[in-house]
Input
Amino acid sequence: MAKNILIVDDEPTLVKGLRFNLEQQEGYNIDAAYDGEEALEIFNPSKHDLVLLDVMLPKMDGMEVCQKIRSISDVPIIMLTAKGEDMDKIMGLEFGADDYMTKPFNMLELKARIKTILRRATASKSQINNQSVKVKDMTVYLINRSVEIEGKEIDLTAKEFDLLNLFISNRGKVFDRNTLLDLVWKHQGDLRTVDVHIRRLREKIEKNPAKPEYILTKWGVGYYFTAK
Output
C-alpha cells in the first residue's frame, strides 16, 4: 500500500516539484498545505505516514505545527528550512522532528531519508500493532480495534474506539473538549458531542459510570485516562 505524505510549504513551485518527484516517481500519495493552520486542518494521524514541514510558514510557523502534531501523533516529521543556522536545526529536533533538510536540498538525498524513516516507522508500527494494551481488567487490541473487559468483548462504535484509543495512548494527559472535538471529530459537531460520547463510553467500559476508573474528569479542564 502506498504511503501518504503531507507536504507543508508556502512555496507553490517547491510543492509542485516535490509532488512530482514523490508522487509520480516514487508512488507516494501526496497531500499539500500552504500555511500552518491549513496543515493542522488537513493532517490526519490515522492517514498520514510522514510530514515534510517547512519552518517558515504563514499564520502558524513550522515549529508550532510540529509541536501540535507531535502532541497527538508520533508520525515522522522532516523539517525543511531555508536557514542554515544550527539553532534552527536543533530547535526543530527538540520540538519533536525526526530529521531536517536545509534548502536548497538534494532531491535524491531527501528521497533516501524519507525511505529510511518510513521503513523504521513501519517496523515500529508493526511491532505495536502486534501487541495489545492492557489496563486493569480491560484489554484493547489495536490491530482489529476491539476491546475486552474481563474476557468479554465490548461493542464500541468507531468514534468510541477512536476516543478510547486516543486516551489510552496518552495516559494521564488531560484533553479539553475543544481538543477532543478537533482530534476525533475534526470539528464536526459541538462540545455536547464530546460529552455524550464520553458518557456512552463510560457506560460501556466502567463498572460504575458514576465513579469511573478509566476515563476520569479534571473539573474545569477536561478528561483524561487513568495513569495508574
About this structure: Residues 215 and 225 are 5 Å apart (CA to CA). Helices lie at 12-25, 36-42, 62-70, 86-94, 107-129, 158-169, 177-185, 191-205. Residues 107-129 form the longest helix (23 residues). The chain has two domains: 4-128, 132-225.
